[in-house]
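To close the section, here is one more complete example, presented without commentary so you can practise reading it yourself. The ligand is protoporphyrin IX containing FE.
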Amino acid sequence: MNAPETLVLADGHARDKPLASPLSPDFADNPYATYARWRAEGPLLWSDAFFGGAWLLTRHADVESALRDVRLSAQRTGGWVMDVAEGDRAGLTPFQRLFTRALLFLDAPEHTRLRQVLMPAFRPQRLQALQPEIEQFAAELVQGIAPGEDFDFMERIARPLPVRVIARLMGVDLSLETDFMRWADDIAAFIGAVRPSPEQTRLAQRSTLEMADYFERDLLPRRRRDPQDDLVTELVQARDDGRISSDAELLAQCAMLLFAGYETTRNLLGNGMLVLMQHRAQWELLCRQPELVPGSIRELLRFDSPVQWTGRRVARSLTLHGQPLRRGELVLPMIGCANHDPDRHADPETLDVQRDNPGALSFGSGPHVCIGAALTQLEAQTLFAQLVLRLPGLQLAGAVERNGNPVYRGILRLPMRAAT
Ligand code: HEM
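Output:
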């Protein structure tokens, strides 16, 4: 659905010429021209098109400080799920119940307690132990591409790699790979839509229930009976010793991790690959100097972030740029827009894999900063290091199909040729 967009400046003055709708095909293809116009309009803009009305923060400095501002609450799912979804709202209760308890949507002290439970699994030592398996998964996928072959990068590499890694980390059965990708796709389409359609709502609901059912009836009881070296076992133990306070809270963290670990990483791999193909000289530079790959991932994250914005709700009224923000209003720190702010990033529309200190906000900032940031970068570094070494002749081989999701920006089909 293409909602007409009205942008109203902070002083309440409506624009005569509405800007491109965030849901237009044009925006999904390239939001950055729209972002440049928004930044020029001002740091704080009102739009009716987002979730029935929200404040957009357009600049790096404001996005960063909003993410650290305790007057802005991470608890935002209530109105967001129920107010915007059309059709069967009552049926959304399970979705709402599950996601409101996820770490991402909690404030201190619940947030602090749960973050302490999850954090150890993402520490450098633990990731180092996982690295050989990530190397092996990546090698299998890259070696599966024959010289000269035409293939879809998303299907053969960008989707399976993060699925295998998050499944290994958590202890999720790989035989469920296909279901798992469908659950994540349906949830992403719902969360990513600024006004979800009844169909998107129904699918998200169904997938959430299926995913919850798998954990509740299958994996969690199995790990309770027979503990393994995985994150789900640790979460079950935390539930049993009281660090996780309810079964619903336990389930919410499992669902969130499965979704967050897969959806964003595959979009990093897909967006990153496309951007490098579109900037051939940068790809060739990486092929000549593979030691630049780790730094290049930070630049790819800045240049085309897999998460384009996040949200907060005003918990205590405040004034920003002279504009009062009232309790309950929604604020959207526009991450993708901030990552191209020329006040923070010199020449922001240029991809430069050697950029010094890209300092992007792709993983957020403050107490909710992405817990999986090191893991996802390790996956991307490992994969791209192998690609530049083994398949330097890679090239685009057909029309790219984007996912059209304005928040979880990504690609559905990326046809490529492994030219020799
Ligand atoms: C390129 C990949 C990724 C990107 C761009 C990304 C982005 C983000 C962002 C922007 C936030 C903060 C949201 C906010 O403040 O509202 C966040 C939080 C989070 N991310 Fe990621 N993420 C990625 C990969 C991952 C992975 C691989 C995992 C887990 C395996 C993960 C798990 C989480 C969790 C649990 C949170 C919530 C943290 C909290 O609330 O304390 N993410 N992520």
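Once you have examined the tokens, check your reading against these statements. The chain has one domain: 7-418. The radius of gyration is 21 Å.
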